[in-house]
Amino acid sequence: MSPVLANIYLHYVLDLWFEKVIKRQFNGSAHIIRYCDDFVCCFQYESEARNFYQMLTQRLQKFNLNIAPEKSKIIEFGLFAFRNTRKLGRSKPETFDFLGFTHYCGQSQNGKFRVKRKTSRKKYKAAIYRMKQWIKANRTTPINQLLEEIKPKLIGHYRYYGITDNGPMLSRYWYEVAKLLFKWLNRRSQRNSYTWEKFLLLLKAKPLPKPKIYVSIFDNGQWPCINV
Q: Among 9, 72, 169, 216, which residue has the fewest nearby CB atoms (within 10 Å)?
């Protein structure tokens, strides 16, 4: 019920207010992207981003809602942030997490600016932990059945996180899952233990689904962002 109630409530508290009030008051471009109670606001001008943050706090207080300060920040993000970082001698612009992805400033193959995304560190660690606990609990399952039951779990991960630029994180996830499987198969008994070479032969005969990009995203953002 929580996501449904958040969508209904915040449609009036936040979405309509942003469209009818905020966008009309500000001079620069302003946009909001919301999913349930998680949202990102983008502004053309830093001053308007900071002004909005104060207005947002007051707006939510009217409805007994609060912003989580530890999860909210104002950053410079986009094409100009990418250029300014280089001029200031910093290694890279700040990033922000949204819906399980870390959004960061990058370049396309032809050297043009492009927003890129990868699995956030928090979500990646959580996915590895869940898989570890599942393999540990099912390590006595017959090997053929165990491998078959892992396949949809891997595919489910790929279908959510399989977006443009996230290939390396998907490959890393596949490798970590393989290592977990190798570890817990060898905990079953000494007699049936595997060397790494023997384990790779097993995966060659009964391969696990390889990482796949399911969604292609190309989005050029260039405004200061508030991640709440």
A: 216
